[in-house]
Amino acid sequence: MTIERGSRFDVESDQVFPQGALMQGEIFSDMEFVSNGDATRGKKANQRKDERTGLLRWKVLVSDPSAEKECDASVTVVALSEVQPVPPESVQVVPGLSVRPVEFTDMTVEPRVMGDKFKYLGYTVRAKGIATPGQAAIPQPQRPASAVKSTADKSDEKPTA
């Protein structure tokens, strides 16, 4: 049996996040790395595009309450969309503490070998939609990509183990 490198496997949101996912912060653009030397020569960072779909890449940092290990509790999901997805409204748990439960649609996972000194199997998690849990079929409003403030981010996507 041969599985090609870069194969993506379709999954449901509840397979990856059985107890749901809680979004941390905001959705931000996934920018290409620009070295200091290139930046001084005037090279601008461009937003990355997915190599298969051609859609713009957006990063969504979520907490996974079902994670067994601390290192798996925080996951970066790569959202693929022409415009910046608008996350669901946050829910106030107690006064002064709000959480933003999210559910992803059209999810894929791509296995990858990760680690520097010690190698392990990790995954790149991608999704084409983000919604309030239980309302994934309802289309979400989106902002045009041109309205997004972009900040260059030197880190690559943070896969999970």
Can you give a write-up of this model?
The radius of gyration is 17 Å and the shape is globular. It has 161 residues and is mainly β. Strands 1-9-10-4-3-2-8-11 form an eight-stranded mixed sheet. The chain is built from two helices and twelve strands, in the order E-H-E-H-E-E-E-E-E-E-E-E-E-E. Helix content is 6%, strand content 38%.
Give structural attributes.
mainly beta, 161 residues, 6% helix
Layout of helices and strands:
Elements: E1 9-11, H1 13-16, E2 21-29, H2 36-40, E3 57-63, E4 74-80, E5 84-85, E6 91-94, E7 97-99, E8 101-105, E9 107-114, E10 120-127, E11 129-131, E12 142-143
Parallel strand pairs: 4-10
Antiparallel strand pairs: 1-9, 2-3, 2-8, 3-4, 5-12, 6-7, 8-11, 9-10
A few lines on this structure:
By secondary structure, the chain is mainly β. It contains two helices and twelve strands, in the order E-H-E-H-E-E-E-E-E-E-E-E-E-E.
The termini sit apart by 24 Å
Please estimate the helix content. under 10%
Count structural domains: 1
Order of helices and strands: EHEHEEEEEEEEEE
Instruction: Please report which band the strand proportion falls in: under 5%, 5-15%, 15-25%, 25-35%, 35-45% or over 45%.
Output: 35-45%
